Amino acid sequence: MGIVERAIQVVFGDTDAAAAHGPRLGRDEVERRLAGADGQRSLARADLTGADLTGLNLEGVDLSGAVLRDAVLAGANLRGANLTDACLCNADLSRADLTNAVLANASCVRTGALRPAKLREADLSGADATGADFSKADLQGAVLAGTVLDEASLHQADLRGARLPGAMLRGANLRHALADEAVFAGADLETADLARAVCRGANFSGAAMVRANLTGTVLEGADLSGANLAEATLEGVLLRGASLRNAVLTGADLDGVELEACDVAGAD
Q: pTM, whole model, 2 decimals?
């Protein structure tokens, strides 16, 4: 890259991405393409930066590799859409329906509004959702394997049956979330806030939960075997029937916690 090109990139951002995606498309052009006679519903690698796609029907559309930076998709129908490798930085997906959508390896979801988006059974595996707002989002049965959700808000989100193995949730807000039967095996929940979340039968085996806040969390029948709960706050947590086998509890606040009905074999 030459000096001039490098200077342009520093001032204006990544121009290579825009160039590779062709001309920027607005709502009218998007609707024209989707209504084409060939019947192909593809916007793959399209540049939709800042486009207002409010309420648009994008069901089943191929948006793989598309740039949706600052786009407005509030209330849009994205059921079954393919958003693999899409850039969603600051996109507004509030009230959007992403049921069965695929967002694998989607990048730059940072600070985007996804509340209260419908993401039931959506695949967000490997996506970067750092700092994203999923408050009250419907993520039932969603797949978030290896998804980066550091500092994200999942306040009052519905994560029942969701799969988050190996997900990064450091400092995430899961207060009052519903996560019955959810899988957090091997996830990093260091300093995450799960206060008063309901996680009956959830799987936290091998999860890193150092300094996590579990005040009043419902963990009845949950699997916390091998989890690292060092210095975590478990005041008032409900653990009836839970497994804490080989869990690390060094320095954890267990005030008011009843461990009699738990499996604590090998716990430290």
A: 0.83
